Amino acid sequence: MSSIKGKLDLLRNDIKEMGGIIDLDWCGELFYPYYEHFNDDNLRYRGGSLIAFWGLLLEWEDGSGFPFYTGVEEYDCHHFDKNLEEFLKYASDIKIQYPNIFLAIIDSLRFLDENEDFENEFPNISSDLFSTIRDKLLQTDVQKLSDIYQLALQEAGLSF
């Protein structure tokens, strides 16, 4: 496994090459436990890891892929529960330091919660985690910003 620096460099190059963050190779060259850096002292690593989590959510939301482990995959997948747990743990700091990334992630989680059945999709994850996310995060008022995509990328230093 490559370093977080290497993965974020790849992510930046892929965003530039693809013109966005959707439909990237999340379970291949970009596979990495980004959640381990949601509270990293290095701000580039912290912001980049949060953008990666948002990218994983967008991949699922967009329908172009499903990058999360459900218990039956035969390839590398990301852990939805670990991402949620770490995001929840540092949510108040993330909201202050990266308000656009925070709102983008909340917006994606809310969309997925309304359109997908978390408990059915992830039978290996306790429904208590989903209830906590719903109670503590998905009650956040998110205004639709037309440029949230670019603002979030700018916060993480990944825009062009």
Summarize the structure in short.
The protein has 160 residues and is mostly helical. It is built from 7 helices and no strands.
Structure commentary:
This protein is an all-alpha fold. The protein has one domain (4-155). It is 57% helix and 0% strand. The radius of gyration is 15 Å and the shape is globular. The two termini are 27 Å apart. The model has no long low-confidence stretch (mean pLDDT 89).
Lay out the secondary structure.
Elements: H1 4-18, H2 43-62, H3 80-97, H4 99-115, H5 118-121, H6 127-136, H7 148-155
Query: How many structural domains does the protein architecture include?
Result: 1
Q: How is the main sheet built?
A: none
Low-confidence segments, given as residue ranges, are none
In terms of DSSP E residues, the strand content is under 5%
Indicate the percent of residues in helices.
Answer: 55-70%
SS elements, strand count: 0
Helices and strands, in order, run as HHHHHHH
Which tags fit this structure?
160 residues, mainly alpha, globular
